[in-house]
Design goal:
Number of strands: 5
Strand order of the largest sheet: 3-4-5
Order of helices and strands: HHEEHHEEEHH
Structural class: mainly alpha
Largest sheet: 3 strands, antiparallel
Keywords: Coiled coil, Signal
Strand content: 5-15%
Radius of gyration: 48 Å
Number of helices: 6
Distance between the termini: 104 Å
């Protein structure tokens, strides 16, 4: 705007002070004064036009830089949107995993606990560790402590502090000592062989219906392992 005004002012100056062609007679030779006046105006116009041209070039260069900057900003905005989308997806996945873990812990407590004792089996040591830890966190929200943990896997036992181990496992050297037999839900659990053992008290009873029922009912089998045999 500044250069345009300057050019217009110079043009206006030329029109004001130039010889009046309509009122003065045409002369074959311009006076020295008029010639100098026109030459000076031409120089001023040329200088102003040069400044205007330079500014246009600078504006063109600035426009290219601005376009490049806008392109980079658009690229950054796109990258930011992608990152925000990935972050949102990651947070959703984390929340989903938390809900799944809490769901497994809840299922363990609801379906695999008898009063305050729990017993379950999973495929890997990692699953067992995750299940115990998630259950501990869930129960801790209600000020309940899950401890006295026995397992047939020494990897699982090593993942928890000794204060959380079963009483007869706290003083063991898990790298050397063998795991002792545990009693879980009234059953004898051999940790080394991962098997349940049933001890039958042999008593002489009459071979009658009442005697057979008494012998069968004396077997404590809450999980129904012996059902195919005793039914």
């Amino acid at each position: 705007m500044r250069v345009t005004i300057a050019v217009l002012l110079l043009l206006y100056k030329c029109l004001i002070f130039a010889p009046n062609a309509a009122t003065e007679p045409v002369s074959s030779e311009l006076s020295t004064k008029d010639d100098n006046f026109l030459q000076n105006n031409i120089k001023e116009l040329t200088s102003a036009l040069q400044i205007f041209t330079d500014l246009l070039q600078e504006l063109g260069a600035a426009k290219k830089k601005l376009q490049a900057t806008e392109t980079r900003l658009n690229a950054l905005e796109t990258s930011q949107q992608k990152l925000m989308s990935r972050l949102a997806n990651s947070e959703a996945q984390i929340e989903k995993v938390k809900m799944e873990n809490k769901g497994r812990a809840k299922h363990f407590v609801v379906r695999n606990f008898y009063v305050d004792d729990g017993l379950t089996s999973v495929s890997t040591s990692e699953e067992a560790i995750a299940l115990f830890r998630n259950t501990q966190k869930m129960l801790a929200e209600s000020n309940l402590r899950l401890h006295k943990i026995p397992s047939n896997s020494k990897t699982v036992m090593k993942a928890f502090p000794k204060k959380d181990h079963a009483e007869d496992l706290k003083d063991l050297d898990l790298g050397v000592d063998s795991l002792p037999v545990q009693h879980s839900l009234g059953l004898t659990w051999n940790l080394e062989t991962d098997s349940f053992n049933f001890h039958v008290h042999q008593e002489e009873k009459p071979f009658m219906r009442m005697g057979v029922l008494s012998t069968v009912n004396s077997l404590y089998d809450p999980l129904g392992f012996l059902a195919p045999v005793v039914v």
